[in-house]
Design a protein that fits this description.
The structure holds two protein chains of two kinds. Chain A is of the alpha/beta class. Chain A is about 30% helix and about 25% strand. The chains are: A alpha/beta, B alpha/beta.
């Protein structure tokens, strides 16, 4: 059942991501302001500067059940679409990985050994923990594992680009989990979903009221488990019906060590809920960051055309990432 | 040519793909991939493939598909020709693009990235290798066809090889900066397997005439010796189209390259004979080739009673010739013409050899009827006799210049046709009746001689333009149409091949075009393409046909599973338009000049001064009659015979004497309605 035929068999079932990829609950999270003031208009930049677009994809399906618990087959893939003369083509070799996941404790050793004998090393989604004997719990844990595998591929590709690439890379999603992207890396992440909004209420109101082509003040996000990132909001497209999240993206870049040191000196803790603290605007590190924020913002605005319709996320999904996603779907047969 | 022997086009538009191909190796790089979906599956005769946006693929391009999975130890290879193309992007609705540009075509943000765009082509299968088992086209890589592929795809390999080669170049196929010669099979063009060629195209581009001229040059250069000899008879039915086939035309370097590639000498026809009837006055030949430096090459085409009576049906319609009249004509044909006819009551023994003789014979018949006060002569009613006399006598008037009263015959050299010679019969300025008569008689004679195998050549190509006029799909069933149908259906067994041309193929009789083994299409009129005969062509092919350049053709041939687009060089002969500019028509010659020119055909020593002296005392009809007599007899001593004929005609002849002699009064007058109108 597992092995060469697994993809074909699993392809007949609907992907689990369709049912189980519930977003995080909406929250507002604190951050450290790096700029003061209100929204800033971004200068328009005619020439596209971004050179590559990175995206990842995952598809998971239940192969079958053993002892009442699901065995899941998943495919994760990541690719970069590189732009040359306004045309996209795949950069290097896209990364693809096939996974078989199950709760070893639940399926039992004979089944587990049979899975191992099939040639594809199964992954124990329990990973040493004790999972409840609930199929949906196993599926949910499996999806988390698959997502981690996808992020791993994305990180690998991002690291490759930062080492060998020849321009700026647009990463779909945040970069807080990607240590390969440092302050010297020509890469930034673009977050399209906003289950977590950053900023104190006053700044949030500014963010949600951003007009087209305007950005919020930059801020620093410190994650407990991940690296700190400098971030800001940008409105790419007008909001029909005053939907505050329409066309709104949040960009993440790796802060410089000098900036982190500056924020340390300004009294920002390693992890804090103090959202009102401001870095010294005259500090060189802050000035450099603001210049980079403005620069990247102009690049993003230049990527608004062509739009990625008919994708429903077209107002935040840039065409390069959309094309990358289409490529990955074709690649893994999603 | 490149280092691998492939010919590279000199006028290919440079682009990335073509530039890469000129290096040589990249020709072997796949240009596309076969795709098949449940909605758009591949079949045994059709497949779909996509290419890069800049791939040198277009409608008419020949491609090769290399399958991926062996079938019966053979990797299937399929050849196809692109018949339809599609292009679309990842947009689901045009509205999305409107939104993306803020509703302003020239406004909105500049697209940083070009949308993903597909070039999807549909190709019709030309050939499967191996041909068994015949399966749907497999998934695989698509390559631009090279020379060898083109030969295989079009099944030309069967007649391109060895001692039995029967390939006739028809043009070059161009794709991807490369060009491959395209050949048709002589056995299927000239016979005996199939035969006949039909060409369609709008008027004004000279494509049809040029293509025929080029093809004749190609046939003459490549028709294999082991298939015998070949000549052509071309009817020039309009303007000066075919009047300068022996004069060199203007060629460009690209044309010369094509001639060299296709192995055809870039020179005019070496052996062209021109024939034209006289004008009604009978002095000058009725042709646009009258320039003094060319006129000597044109032979008169004149027929007498014997030649015409055999084809009276062409000129006499059914209303004229009922069964009774037909019986009398048969009687005259079999018992009167060319024989001594003697009967009591006649003024003399008649030997009818000309219309004038026939009229004298009729007068004697009618006189005898009147003398006997009877209604019938040899079972033929007096009214029938008068009607037939009226119609037959009228022929020389209706076909003046072609048909002579005094029976002089100047004809094509039936029985002595030469290999690779072109015989141009110029009937462009002749009345329609006379044209029909020329077609009917020339083709019938050709057929007779080919049946007897004594024409002089084994194969004869007859070129007829304006087929929709001579073999229309509807209208009366004329003698000429029946004759063309007969050639189309049975000519190939005899070696009589019809090359027909017309603007509207749909208006030509279906059996004429249907029997053409090879069909060629130049630029076509959109209305014509909308007719049912073109339903088998895809919209893209029709669109290409409607926009073909001069020098481009679409060729259908029995060996080709699908039509192929080719380019052919300008014919190496002078076009009619250029010909009349360089060799303007001479003014009508004087009687002396015309007679001198005619007599010089028999005796090169005759000059204008001698003729002027000889005819000084004679009227024009006498001079022309004397000339015709000399031309008919072709004596050794032309001057003496011409002088004698002039002197003889200056005296009253037998006919004149009859006209002067008193006639007995009719005992009973005929009522006008007895004459049959």
């Amino acid at each position: 059942m597992v092995g060469a035929r697994a993809a074909g068999v699993a392809g007949q079932a609907p992907p689990l991501e369709r049912f189980a990829m519930a977003g995080d609950p909406p929250t507002v999270s604190a951050c450290h302001m790096l700029e003061s003031g209100s929204a800033r208009a971004v200068a328009l930049h005619a020439e596209p500067t971004v050179r590559g677009f990175l995206d990842g994809i995952q598809r998971s399906r239940v192969l079958g059940h053993a002892a009442g618990t699901p065995i899941i087959f998943a495919t994760v893939a990541a690719a970069i679409q590189r732009r040359e003369a306004r045309r996209l083509s795949t950069w290097n070799v896209p990364l693809v990985r096939h996974l078989v996941l199950a709760a070893r404790e639940h399926v039992g050793e004979p089944v587990w050994e049979a899975l191992e004998a099939s040639g594809v090393a199964p992954i124990d989604v329990a990973d040493g923990e004790t999972l409840p004997l609930h199929p949906l719990a196993v599926r949910a844990r499996a999806l988390e594992t698959v997502a981690q595998e996808r992020e791993t591929l994305e990180r690998q590709l991002a690291a490759s680009w930062c080492r060998d690439g020849d321009g700026w890379l647009w990463i779909d999603g945040g970069i807080s989990g990607t240590f390969a992207v440092d302050e010297h890396s020509p890469a930034f992440g673009v977050v399209k979903s906003h289950s977590t909004l950053y900023g104190e209420p006053g700044m949030l109101r500014t963010t949600l009221a951003l007009s087209v082509g305007a950005r919020s003040p930059a801020f620093l996000i410190r994650h407990r488990a991940r690296r700190a990132v400098a971030s800001w909001y940008l409105r790419l497209h007008a909001s029909p019906g005053d939907d505050p999240l329409h066309g709104l993206v949040r960009i993440e870049i790796a802060p410089s060590a000098a900036l982190l040191a500056e924020t340390e000196r300004a009294g920002f803790g390693a992890a804090t809920d103090d959202a009102t603290a401001l870095a010294d605007p005259d500090a060189p590190a802050v000035g450099a960051l603001v210049r980079r924020v403005d620069e990247i913002s102009t690049w993003l605005l230049a990527e608004r055309a062509p739009v990625s319709l008919p994708d429903p996320r077209w107002h935040t999904l840039t065409y390069g990432v959309y094309a990358c996603e289409q490529f990955l779907k074709a690649l893994i047969g999603a | 040519m490149d280092e691998n022997g492939r010919r590279l086009s000199t006028d290919a538009v440079p682009h990335d793909g073509a530039a890469a191909q000129e290096g040589g190796e990249d020709l072997r790089e796949p240009l596309g991939r076969v795709v098949a979906t449940e909605r758009k599956p591949n079949t045994t005769h059709e497949f779909h493939f996509w290419t890069a946006v800049d791939a040198p693929i277009g409608i008419g391009t020949i491609v090769r598909v290399d399958g991926l999975v062996p079938v019966g130890a053979h990797v299937p290879r399929v050849y196809g020709v692109v018949m339809e193309g599609f292009s679309y992007s990842d947009l689901q609705s045009p509205l999305h693009d409107v939104l993306g540009h803020d509703g302003r075509p020239s406004g909105g943000p500049i697209a940083a990235t070009e949308r993903t765009e597909i070039r999807l082509y549909t190709a019709q299968v030309l050939r499967h290798v191996p041909d068994e088992p015949l399966q749907p086209v497999p998934l695989g890589q698509v390559f631009l066809a090279e020379d060898a592929d083109v030969a295989t795809a079009l099944r030309m390999d069967s007649y391109l090889r060895g001692d039995t080669r029967t390939a006739i170049p028809v043009g070059v196929y161009r794709a991807g900066g490369m060009q491959s010669p395209i050949y048709v099979d002589a056995d299927f063009l000239v016979g005996p397997e199939a035969a006949h060629l039909n060409i369609s195209g709008v008027s004004g581009l000279a494509t049809k005439t040029s293509a025929i001229e080029w093809l004749l040059q190609s046939i003459f250069a490549h028709f294999p010796a082991h298939r015998g000899t070949v000549a052509a008879v071309c009817f020039n039915v309009k303007g000066p189209d075919l009047c300068f086939l022996d004069q060199p035309g203007r060629l460009e370097d690209a044309d010369r390259e094509l001639y060299e590639m296709l192995g055809v000498p870039a020179e005019p026809f070496k052996d062209v004979r021109y024939y034209a009837p006289y004008t009604a006055r009978g002095i000058a030949l009725n042709t646009l080739r009258t320039h003094p430096s060319l006129a000597d090459d044109v032979q008169p085409l004149t027929w007498g009673l014997g030649e015409v009576l055999q084809f009276a049906e062409v000129l006499l319609n059914k209303d004229d010739v009922d069964a009774k009249a037909d019986a009398l004509i048969d009687f005259i044909r079999e018992r009167v013409v060319g024989r001594d006819f003697e009967e009591s009551g006649f003024s003399r023994t008649h030997r009818v050899q000309s219309f004038a003789d026939l009229d004298a014979w009729f007068r004697d018949v009618l006189r005898k009827l009147e003398d006997s006060n009877g209604d019938t002569w040899r079972t033929h009613h007096a009214a029938t006799i008068r009607k037939v006399r009226n119609r037959l006598s009228n022929l020389s008037t209706r076909c003046a210049g072609l048909v002579t009263d005094d029976g002089v015959v100047s004809d094509l050299p039936f029985g002595a046709f030469d290999d690779r010679a072109v015989y141009v019969v110029d009937v462009a300025n002749v009345e329609e009746d006379a044209q029909d008569l020329v077609f009917a008689r020339v083709v019938s004679k050709l057929r007779e001689h080919l049946e007897r195998r004594d024409l002089g050549v084994d194969h004869l190509i007859v070129f007829v333009d304006e087929l929709n006029k001579y073999a229309p799909g509807d209208g009366p069933d004329t003698y000429v149409r029946k004759m063309l149908l007969d050639i189309a259906e049975r000519g190939r067994y005899l070696g009589l091949v019809l090359f027909g041309a017309q603007q509207f193929r749909s208006q030509v009789h279906r059996r004429v075009v249907g029997n053409a083994g090879t069909n060629i299409f130049g630029r076509m009129d959109a209305d014509e393409l909308a007719t049912p005969g073109y339903q088998v062509l895809s919209p893209a092919v029709k669109a290409r046909l409607a926009t073909l350049d001069k020098g481009q053709l679409m060729v259908r041939h029995p060996h080709f599973a699908q039509p192929v687009f080719v380019r052919f060089p300008r014919p190496a002969v002078m076009s009619g338009r250029e010909g009349v500019e360089r060799f303007p028509q001479a003014p009508e010659p004087s009687l002396a000049m015309a007679v001198a020119r005619d007599l010089r055909r028999l005796d090169r020593g005759i000059d204008l001064g001698w003729v002027q002296q000889a005819i000084l005392l004679y009227d024009e009809p006498e001079v022309l009659a004397a000339r015709n007599a000399v031309l008919r007899r072709r004596p050794d001593d032309v001057k003496a015979v011409f002088t004698r004929e002039l002197q003889r005609r200056a005296r009253p002849g037998a006919i004149d004497a009859e006209a002067i002699a008193p006639k007995p009064r009719a005992l009973r007058a005929f009522a006008p309605d007895e004459y049959g109108g």
